[in-house]
């Protein structure tokens, strides 16, 4: 199956080491990994090695809906970036580029075929913006 790629990014006012840690450590992931205030991420785990698993649980704060999201790492470049595949074969790549004391975090993901690409880009960008806000505030 062929997927369309979507690219989103943010520039975080943090050095690359902090940006990396806040993106990859489960104790930080649970603080920013949601697209709206009505949702939260109560659990995350991350085995950041090729063949390792990335897992997050997203749930509505008020209600009984939620879903698991994650994948298996196919490439890991410590402090530089990584790629993982989700269960349906889609690929997600995250790259960290240092820019004059700041860090550009670029995310490239394969779009799924159920929702419009613009909606998917908007949702993933909102989560990435939450990451930026959390990282800069802590």
Textual characterization of the structure:
- The protein is an alpha+beta fold.
- It has three helices and seven strands; from the N terminus they run E-H-H-E-E-E-E-E-E-H.
- It has helices at 16-24, 26-32, 117-137, and strands spanning 5-12, 39-46, 53-60, 66-77, 81-85, 91-99, 102-110.
- It has a seven-stranded antiparallel sheet with strand order 1-7-6-5-4-3-2.
Terminus-to-terminus distance:
41 Å
Query: Quick one: biggest sheet?
Result: 7 strands, antiparallel
Give the oligomeric state of the chains in this entry, treating copies of one chain as homo and distinct chains as hetero.
single chain
Going across the major beta sheet, what is the strand order?
Answer: 1-7-6-5-4-3-2
Q: How many strand elements? A: 7
Estimate the mean pLDDT confidence: 96
Poorly predicted regions are none
**Topology as H/E string?**
EHHEEEEEEH
* Percent helix range: 25-40%
Give the count of helical stretches.
3
Q: DSSP strand (E) fraction? A: 35-45%
What is the 3D form? globular
Overall radius of gyration: 14 Å
Global structural class: alpha+beta
List the helices and strands and how they pair.
Blueprint: E1 5-12, H1 16-24, H2 26-32, E2 39-46, E3 53-60, E4 66-77, E5 81-85, E6 91-99, E7 102-110, H3 117-137
Antiparallel strand pairs: 1-7, 2-3, 3-4, 4-5, 5-6, 6-7
Helix pairs in contact: 1-2
Gist?
The chain is of the alpha+beta class and 138 residues long. The chain has helices spanning 16-24, 26-32, 117-137; strands at 5-12, 39-46, 53-60, 66-77, 81-85, 91-99, 102-110. 27% of the residues lie in helices and 43% in strands.
């Amino acid at each position: 199956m062929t997927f369309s790629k979507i690219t989103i990014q943010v520039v975080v006012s943090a050095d690359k080491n902090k940006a990396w840690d806040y993106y990859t450590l489960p104790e930080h992931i649970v603080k920013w990994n949601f697209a709206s205030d009505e949702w939260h991420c109560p659990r995350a785990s991350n085995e950041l090695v090729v063949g390792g698993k990335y897992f997050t649980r997203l749930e509505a704060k008020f209600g009984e809906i939620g879903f698991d999201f994650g994948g298996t790492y196919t490439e890991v470049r410590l402090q530089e970036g990584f790629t993982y595949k989700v269960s349906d074969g889609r690929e997600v790549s995250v790259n960290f580029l240092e820019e004059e004391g700041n860090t550009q975090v670029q995310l490239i993901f394969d779009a799924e075929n159920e929702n419009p690409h613009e909606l998917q880009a908007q949702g993933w960008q909102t989560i990435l913006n939450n990451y930026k806000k959390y990282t800069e505030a802590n």
